[in-house]
Each structure stands twice: as C-alpha cells, then as structure tokens.
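Notes, p. 3: input format for complexes.
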Amino acid sequence: ITVLGLESSCDDTAAAVVRRKDGDSNGGEVLSSIVWGQEGLHAAFGGVVPEIAARAHAERLDLCVEQALEQAGLALAEVDAIAVTAGPGLIGGVISGVMCAKGLSIGSGKPLVGVNHLAGHALTPRMTDGVEYPYLMLLVSGGHCQFLGVLGPDQFTRMGGTIDDAPGEAFDKTAKLLGLGYPGGPLIEEEAKNGDPKRFRFPRPLLDRPDLDMSFSGLKTALRRARDTLVAEKGGLTVQDRADLCASFQQAVADTLAEKTRRACIAFGKPLETPVLAVAGGVAANSLIRAALQDVAAKEGFQFLAPPLKYCTDNGAMIAWAGLERFAGGEFDDLTLSARPRWPLDKAAAPMLGSGK
Ligand code: ATP
Ligand code: FE
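Output follows (357 residues plus adenosine-5'-triphosphate):
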C-alpha cells in the first residue's frame, strides 16, 4: 500500500509519500517527504499567526504535493489513498489541507483518509521502527504534552498530560521573554550550552501529585520574575545571565518530564516482555530532555525510541503512515470529511466544525 499524506495544521506545509514495507505489517518506507516551514513568516510575531499560516498553506499545498509525488517517482494515479490532517490544529490551515485533499481525491478517484494530527505523531514509531502495539508514548510538542497508551491505530488511552501550556509553548514564550526569537526551543538549547542549570531554582510543578498531570505555565512566570529582578538590579542581562536563565529553565522542564515519565512507565506496566517508551513532537529534539528520558526508560526496563528529528516535528510522512494504517484496516472517508479544530485522541467522535454540537 502506498499513501500520499498532507499536513497543514500549524506552521509547516508538508506532503509525503509512504509505502508499507513488503511482507511486514509494521514499518514504512518514506519515498518522499517535503516540508516547507513558515518560520520566516511568523518570526517577527514571536508565534504563529493563524491567518498568515492559512494563506501560506493555501498557496503552497499544490506545489508541495507535486514535489512529493515527483520525488517519489509516482503519479497520483499510482498511490492507493490520499491522507490528510483533519484536525486538531489551526482551523484555517486544516481546512486548506482538507480542501486540497478533496480536490485530489475527486480528480483521481482515490479514497480520502482523514487523519488525527496527534495520531500521526503517536504512530510515527510504527513507521520508523516497526514498533508493535501496545507501547507508551510521550508526545511533547508546541501544542501538546501527553502520555498515551497506544493500543492500536485508532485506540489510544490518555494517561495524563499538561493542564496548561505545552513545553514547546513554554520554550517559545521564554525565548520571547529573553528576546531570542522564534521558534524558541533550539535557540534556548543553544544558549543553555554555556549556562549554569543550577543558578536559578525554577519550580518543578505538580511533582507532589501522584498523577501524570503536568503544568508549565508557572515556569515562564518564574523566569520572568528572575529576569525582572536582574534587570532591576543591574539594568540589564549579561550574556552569562541569559545563558544561566536558559539552562535553569531547560533543566526544570527536563526534570519535570523525566519524573512524570518514570511514573508513566510504572503506570503503563509491562504488557510485553520489553515494553517500549517512544517520544514524538518537536521538544523531543532537545538533547538534554532526550537524555533524561532515555535514562528513565533504561532504569524502568523500557526500550527507548525516538524517531529521527525530521519525523518528530510536523511532517507529511507521519500523516501518510497514520492514513495507511487506517486504510489498511478498511477505513476511509468521503467528501463529507470535516476539519476539526479540536479532536481529542481518546474520543473518536469529536464534534464536527459547524455542526453546532
Ligand atoms: P502540535 O504538534 O502540538 O500541533 P507543533 O506542530 O507546533 O505542535 P512540533 O512541530 O512538533 O509542534 O514542535 C515545535 C515545538 O518544538 C516548538 O514549540 C519548538 O520550540 C519546540 N522545539 C523544537 N526544537 C526544540 C529543542 N531543541 N528544544 C526544545 N524545544 C524544541
Ligand atoms: Fe505536530
């Protein structure tokens, strides 16, 4: 089975072609994966501007799909299905993608498969490493942070997650507070290399609670306070102050994620002899956080899996793969497929946009 996948739910316009490996129910071969980032369009605003994103997606999707097919060496007529992110995400972008996919489906007669963006992230280790169900997944991105029990292509148990900001959002907002630019994650990681992670003691929220919930919005407030104190004392931040703030912030996020992940491993138990802890989402790109999670997994007897970075952040291949799994199970959609701004993973039937439910 070969599937074309489209992704446009945030600030990346992406298209990819993925083929299931022969004689193996797990694992996909990425024939092409085109990702056009929009960072440049949003950098000046310190965050994604939905209207600008939607316009850019609408302008670029056609060409992005064309390139993905060309690089895969296939005509549209040669793919088996067209998968598209149908939510959750910035609704203008999601609609652009769904419209484009519907057009392609009508034009080619190929079935349309709506995909939950989070399912795309959560199923990525199946594509990259052929992981068996069930496995434990920590999804940490710009918009999400949750522990998922992944039981099947359409079966997820949400075990806990952030009750406010996602860690990526915290990285982005913190970078903005320090005047570093956008997206904040890589910039903070770079600054932190020269910083002292122990200089500022930022909170590790909710560690006193036994559940798997997390909170990251207080961290940003604590950092702002530390910054303001420094500015009040000496009229500004030195290069070292900035590096120390970044390192201390990053350490606090890593510590919190590591401790909650340890508890998630225990809660998930060991359904298989070697249980798997997989991560996905842009924050999984952070090497300190990766190392902390790897350490926890080793201690708890879990195999640790982090897909290559290009498949951790938003991309079309993960959507093609998630669509492929749905399609292989005999599921697909028709032209009534709707874009959903909200679509929790553990609730298959979310309200359709405009249905008033
Ligand atoms: P979602 O998938 O939840 O809709 P998203 O698409 O914005 O959100 P991703 O593309 O998976 O998320 O990841 C982007 C986020 O990852 C940004 O918030 C960015 O700051 C963060 N990020 C990227 N690299 C790093 C890094 N090295 N360290 C920390 N955070 C990082
Ligand atoms: Fe994403």
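The chain has a mean pLDDT of 93.
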